[in-house]
Amino acid sequence: MSIEFFYEDTDFMLDQPETYAIWITRIVDGEGYSIEALNYVFCSDAYLHQINMDYLRHDTYTDIITFDNSDEDRLIESDIFISIDRVKENSVTQNISFIDELARVLVHGVLHLMGWNDKTPEQKKQMREKEDASLSLR
Predict the structure, then answer these.
(1) What is the pTM assigned to this prediction?
(2) H or E element that contains 14
(3) Within the chain, what is the greatest distance between any pair of CA atoms?
(4) Which CATH number covers residue 95?
(5) Which of 71, 70, 76 is nearest to 111 (CA)?
(6) Distances (CA, A) of 95 to 91, 106, 136
(7) CB 31 within 8 A of CB 114
(8) Mean pLDDT of the chain
(9) Which one of 8, 101, 104, 120 has the lowest number of neighbouring Cβ atoms within 10 Å?
(10) Digit-coded pLDDT (tens) for 91-119
(11) What radius of gyration do the chain's Cα atoms show?
(12) DSSP codes of every residue in 58-104
């Protein structure tokens, strides 16, 4: 298992990272994928906004950006950037706990790496169902 957690421009520290790594690994294994290297980078809105501008040419704020670095099918190698500011705000607007929203975002990124999309209304529905199923495994 090669899941690591990093921090950029934030005071946030993930509590019990090994528990999250085991949970994410179970989800990935359940989909028939393997993890080569999965790096989560927790950061500020400003930090992620700059990545969004530099790499994706999007002048918007977002809660997550996932970079798929894998060259092989069913092998995960990725950097996932998560804005802690955005997760906090989303948890308030959706009236859920910060930890629940953070877990949803953590799994959302890895689901994208396994081919789940959320561009159309139907894909969004399927993604939410997959997120909910994954969250129930925590």
Answers:
(1) 0.95
(2) none
(3) 39
(4) 3.40.390.30
(5) 76
(6) 6, 18, 18
(7) yes
(8) 97
(9) 120
(10) 999 999 999 999 999 999 999 999 999 99
(11) 14
(12) --S--SEEEEE---STTEEEEEEEEEHHHHHHHHHHTT--HHHHHHH
Count the residues in the chain.
138
Torsion angle of C-alpha atoms 78, 65, 15, 111, degrees rounded to 10: -60
pLDDT tens digits, one per residue of 32-73: 999 999 999 999 999 999 999 999 999 999 999 999 999 999
- Give pLDDT, residue 1: 56
pLDDT higher than threshold 90 for residue 124: yes
| Count: domains in the chain | 1
Q: Which two tokens stand for residue 23?
A: 């949970």
pLDDT of residue 39: 98
Q: Is the pLDDT of residue 26 over 70?
A: yes
> Tokens 């977002």 belong to which residue?
62
- Residue pair 96/110 in contact (Cβ under 8 Å)? The answer is no
